[in-house]
Write a structure and sequence with these properties.
235 residues; alpha/beta; nine-stranded mixed beta sheet; 29% helix
């Protein structure tokens, strides 16, 4: 995957240690919003992340509004009664899409949970992709897969065996980019033993038995109150 023209003009590296890059971007739908940057770690994996299309990007849905929790036994597609993305979360995911596409981190295929917050994540990620490469965003293959649904919920995945199969069976796309899977905190934790922020992406290698090579996320990403101790942030 070659570096895009947008990346050549607007992307600069901030740190070789953390692998942080900065982009002079503004979300098209929200002019004047704060700029953001991509952060990935470790730096040593950069060649693999930017070149290999046989990797899997395992993402947790974008930032949500924790003031409204899922009601008991809510159906995955019942958006009125479950936690959904916040306005800021939508802007963040759109920015993530802009930054990914600007750096030619373009998935060849997306597989996503049925849950509303996950479907919203795809919508705004594609919006960001489209701001950089409209033809790519329009042609991107997206598949909704119940195997990625929230574990042990109504119509949820009974275990992560389906997710594991998707990772292990991914062999690449002939140079067109990695597989992007968008699921939930609980599923990703169960599959990888990694605790991920909302909107964070783990870079997984199917050829190394699903080993996590590193992570990719916005510089602005932060712990959520549902799965992390955030008391220290208020001190």
């Amino acid at each position: 995957m070659a570096t895009s023209v947008v990346a050549e003009e607007k992307i600069r590296q901030l740190s070789t240690h953390m692998g942080e890059m900065y982009a002079e971007i503004e979300a098209p739908s929200e002019p004047g919003q704060p700029k953001d940057s991509l952060r990935f770690e470790p730096w040593q994996m950069i060649d693999e992340m930017f070149v290999r299309d046989d990797l899997v990007f395992l993402m947790r849905h974008g930032p949500t509004d924790w003031s409204k929790l899922d009601i008991k036994d809510v159906a995955p597609t019942d958006c009125a009664n479950q936690r959904v993305m916040s306005p800021q979360g939508k802007r963040d995911v759109e920015n993530l899409g802009i930054l990914m596409a600007s750096n030619d981190l373009k998935p060849a295929r997306i597989v996503v949970s049925e849950w509303c917050r996950n479907q919203q994540t795809v919508e705004y990620l594609k919006k960001g992709f489209g701001a950089v490469d409209a033809a790519y965003a329009d042609g991107l293959e997206v598949e909704t897969e119940p195997a990625l649904n929230l574990l042990l919920s109504l119509q949820g995945a009974p275990n992560v065996s389906g997710m594991r199969d998707l990772v292990q069976n991914w062999e690449g796309s002939g140079g067109n980019g990695p597989l992007l899977m968008i699921s939930h905190y609980t599923n990703i934790d169960e599959l990888t033993d990694f605790r991920v922020y909302e909107g964070e992406i783990l870079v997984v290698d199917p050829k190394r038995e699903g080993r996590v090579l590193g992570y990719l996320r916005l510089r602005s990403a932060s712990p959520d109150v549902g799965h992390f101790d955030t008391d220290y942030l208020e001190q």
